[in-house]
Design brief:
two-stranded antiparallel ribbon, 72% helix, 8 helices, mainly alpha, 226 residues
Length: 226
């Protein structure tokens, strides 16, 4: 019985992604983001439970990638599509390349043995949270901003293409995994965590997008100095 528990949690992640996609197509981006976050919680616990119960399996690994592509690839693409759809007819469909690149990133992750204590390329949950929180928190502001507003579709699509590149890039990005709790060797992780607090307090939901952007910048800067 216990061998089915992790896969059940993974399926809850997948269902959360499906619900997020539904709300995205309905234009309710706040609820879509909420279900992406719920999916991320399930995604965090499925692997942990599998390790605790010693029931990891190849099926679970494949199911996890499928669920992640729905929740962190297709759902955020649907949010961006729904956000751009009222402004133009054809361009918004391009954003679904992000779902394809998310699938490619997940496939690479399954085969890449270098990502035990860190990531190579942007993790799909981080990318999904960036787009969801950006549109929920700053969507209306972007439409009226002096430069972004008149060029909204092009700016967003440029951001999508950058996201696609980051997903499959060879840029090492740190993970919040600790072998020890001391400062030495964990400086970047602690600096990142401490800087998240003012960003969330000052920017609210948009702060989550700022945190993801800061995570990418910090990872790139750290990689260049090591």
């Amino acid at each position: 019985m216990k061998k089915h528990i992790p896969n059940t949690i993974t399926c809850c992640n997948l269902i959360s992604g499906c619900i997020a996609t539904y709300f995205a197509f309905q234009g309710d981006f706040r609820l879509a983001l909420l279900f992406i976050v719920i999916g991320a919680v399930f995604d965090f616990f499925d692997g942990m439970v599998a390790r605790l119960l010693h029931v990891s399996s190849p099926i679970g690994k494949e199911l996890d990638s499928l669920a992640d592509d729905i929740t962190f690839g297709f759902a955020p693409s649907a949010i961006v599509y729904g956000y751009l759809r009222p402004d133009t007819e054809l361009l918004p469909f391009i954003v679904f390349v992000m779902a394809a690149f998310s699938a490619l990133r997940l496939a690479k992750f399954n085969l890449d043995e270098r990502q035990a204590m860190g990531f190579i390329g942007l993790p799909t949950p981080a990318n999904a949270l960036f787009w969801g929180s950006l549109i929920v928190g700053a969507g209306e502001w972007m439409k009226s901003a002096p430069f972004i507003g008149p060029n909204l579709s092009l700016v967003i699509l440029a951001g999508v293409f950058i996201s696609c590149w980051l997903l499959i890039s060879e840029i090492p990005m740190f993970a919040l995994k600790f072998k020890t709790w001391g400062w030495k060797g964990n400086e970047i992780k602690y600096i990142f965590l401490l800087s998240c607090i003012p960003l969330l307090l000052l920017l609210g939901v948009t702060g989550l997008a700022a945190i993801i952007a800061w995570y990418v910048i910090l990872s790139i800067a750290t990689n260049k100095t090591t």
